[in-house]
Amino acid sequence: DAGVIQSPRHEVTEMGQEVTLRCKPISGHNSLFWYRQTMMRGLELLIYFNNNVPIDDSGMPEDRFSAKMPNASFSTLKIQPSEPRDSAVYFCASSFEGAARYFGPGTRLTVT
Amino acid sequence: QKEVEQNSGPLSVPEGAIASLNCTYSDRGSQSFFWYRQYSGKSPELIMSIYSNGDKEDGRFTAQLNKASQYVSLLIRDSQPSDSATYLCAALYNFNKFYFGSGTKLNVKP
User: What is the C-alpha to C-alpha distance for residues A59 and A107, in angstroms, rounded to an integer?
Assistant: First the structure.
């Protein structure tokens, strides 16, 4: 079975540009999570969806970040405009009924 | 106080030894606990989950939970260099709050 799928795997962009990260959760999972990981701050939860509905977005750093989940098999995380401090690895994870999270391979974002 | 605490390490053990990784948590209401392994440059991978007091074994891995003392541990028997990674402990509260520790880096020396 396919795990969580993320794209792109690497993204290099210039400050001020829009960045869109994509995620396909594991089929049958009803919760989806976006995490950010940096050396300084570790693994941070940005937002999570349950049954396609955003439940907790308190971890979204600021209004430049937005996330959508139009259906059970697709989610996006958008940063507009991007800044160098947004450089990190962004993980998408999914779970069933709030249990263990299964992570995708991540997107390594570099903003210059 | 962080919800889940781990010693950042690094923990160094010789090949073939038992590696013991520990984690403490602050909320007695937590229900489930998880251990993830993360290789450098890779995503966290779930390796064990434990829900009740006692030990749970899976191959070379044993997870231990002591709710009275609020700690969780992971034992890796016959450690191999391929076990060298960062191990993240996580706790689930109230079915929707999931907290990760900062991870313990394990080095297994050949």
Answer: 18
